[in-house]
Amino acid sequence: MRTALVIGTGLIGTSAALALAGRGITVHLRDHDPARARTAAALGAGTDEAPAGPVDLVIVAVPPAHVAGTLAAAIRDGLGRGYLDVASVKGGPKRELQDLDLDLTAYIGTHPMSGKERSGPLAATADLFEGRPWVLTPTRDTDTEVLNLALELVALCRAVPVVMDADAHDRAVALVSHTPQLVSSMVAARLESADETAVRLCGQGIRDVTRIAASDPRMWVEILSANPGPVADVLAGVAADLDETVRALRSLESEDDAKRRAGASGVEDVLRRGNAGRARVPGKHGAAPTAYETVAVLISDSPGELARIFADAGRAGVNIEDVRIEHATGQQAGLVQLMVEPTAVPVLETALKERGWALRKG
Predict the structure, then answer these.
(1) Considering the domain boundaries, does residue 264 fall inside one?
(2) Are 63 and 69 in contact, with CB atoms under 8 Å apart?
(3) Residue 302 has what pLDDT?
């Protein structure tokens, strides 16, 4: 691949363009809003000038509802040797394209499993896809050269290729992406009219659950409108669990010992099933999840403090596997939770204490 055309310069399109441009590919940028394409070009993602002729790969990065129309126009205009889209839904656009009676041998549907709560070119980064799954949905008609171009794109973006059927992909993202977005938004919506005293008690748990609720509603309406059936199926299962859990909690209020025991059993059941499901989420580098221990450190909200604590951990020979920061309400301080291998805990605690850090239990 030497040249590419990215149509749609939002978060995903601009991030892909930045990754390609950074690896020597000549990238052309196009958007229905020329100002967005100019912004992406100013960030170093390529040029907003039209290519002189067909490019090696056309990357369509528009909302699912516009994928088929945009791809059809690009194919009819002969803009490239190969074409792919990066929409988060695959089955619908594929069927729409098939209904248009086009030669689709030069097309492959793809979906990089990466994103942010923020959208638009200014949120884009060249490393957005590094280490993340990038789904490819080839069909029997997909040309081998186009599949190779898609694999090259994935490699240049340092992502991990995963081959799936389009409809299987849509059922999978309904479970692992689309439903979590709705559930997060539903929980966050409880805070809208909550008493200010309750809101001030928000800790890391509510922050974790509601983080993705900050996403753009208009973007998610477009995504969910393209995959409503599979998402509704998953939500129906969640709703059944909610109904059972509500009944179990009501039973815990009963004066009848048998009902209280049944209620406790019902609550425990959903929590245990949650444990079992969470244990299946892949861990670091896609390996089986590892149970890390947490070392909690009080840290001031000052420039360089995080860098200093990471440097001190490095000097102690300890690798930080993950990190969380819990901010203290109304104070210029917070609690940094360093996740490490269990055997590294004594080494890290000793090293941090020697360097003057204040450790906290729990």
Answers:
(1) yes
(2) no
(3) 80
The structure tokens listed for 103 are 């030669």
Considering the domain architecture, whether residues 200 and 269 belong to the same structural domain is answered as: yes
Residues 261 and 120 in one domain: no
Q: Nearest 5 degrees, angle CA 98-CA 57-CA 5?
A: 105
85 — phi, psi (to 5°)? Answer: -120, 165
Q: Is residue 216 over pLDDT 70?
A: yes
- Boundaries of domain holding 349: 293-360
pTM over 0.85: no
The single residue listed with the structure tokens 């941090």 is: 352
Closest CA to 341 of 307, 292, 302: 292
Say yes or no: 274 and 316 in one domain.
no
Characterise 265 by phi-psi region: left (phi > 0), alpha (psi -120 to 50), beta (else): alpha
For residues 195 and 343, state if they share a domain.
no
Strands 160-163 and 293-300: unpaired
pLDDT band at 332 (very low <50, low <70, confident <90, very high): low
Calculate mean pLDDT across residues 117-138. 91
Query: In one letter, which amino acid is 261?
Result: R
Chain Cα centroid distance, residue 255: 45
